[in-house]
Amino acid sequence: MTEALRARPVLGAIVVGQSPRPDVHRLLQEAVGDGTRVELVGSLDGLSRAEVEALKPADGGDTLFTKLPDGSGVQISKKVVAGRAQRLVDRFAADGARATVICCTGAFPTLVPKGVVVFPSAVLAGLAQGLLPAGRLGLFVPLPRQAQALAAKWGRPGVAVVAEPLLPLADAREATAAADRMAAHAPDLVVMDCISYTVAQRDAVRARIAAPVLLAVSVTAAVLGEMFA
Fold first, then answer.
1. What is the per-residue pLDDT across 174-220, written as a single tens digit (0 to 9) for each?
2. 199-206 and 172-183 helices cross at what angle (nearest 10)?
3. What is the C-alpha to C-alpha distance for residues 44 and 17, in angstroms, rounded to an integer?
4. Chain segment 81-124, per-residue pLDDT in tens
5. pTM value?
6. Which residue range is the domain that position 152 belongs to?
7. Residues 162, 152: contact at Cβ < 8 Å?
8. How far is it, in rounded angstroms, from Cα 121 to Cα 26?
9. Does residue 48 sit in the same domain as residue 83?
10. Pairwise CA distance, residues 222 & 229, whole Å
């Protein structure tokens, strides 16, 4: 164990793409406070851009979108990410991290937790169930090809799911247009189902939709803040 790990508790954070991700790191660090050190790594760290782009998803259910450190986005295979993330989960547990967060809203059923592992997908799902036992759930997803699979994932008895694509790289105008499309469905609750969605995009959506809007990264950060308080 390193001296830094001995000095103060560590929150391991694994993004599905590559580090650094200062936007995610900042929100997590602010949530857990100065008494905890956030160590953020990427499941695809060490790969070239060409190697990353070669990790093509097999279908919509295998598709993840991630923002890369240069600000661009790429579609990658969830199956590949899960295998590489497992090694990082194991490493954080072995190094004595207090908890590890998987910085992605995708479900990873094959990933074996070591120590305390926080999955934003579970956090969001639990909150959505508590806030919306029945009604219409609006779901923003990064890519059109993900809409059907993710709507099915979020569906449950008594809840109708409507999904609209919104790229996490979208500007305010595009976010507003997507919000207007979602508003036409009259959702009772809206979930922005990607860690790469920003606070600015959430605010643009909130300005056009009367329903509560849950942003994945800030909801997850709030839970971690409680854990590390």
1. 999 999 999 999 999 999 999 999 999 999 999 999 999 999 999 99
2. 40
3. 5
4. 999 999 999 999 999 999 999 999 999 999 999 999 999 999 99
5. 0.91
6. 122-215
7. no
8. 20
9. yes
10. 10
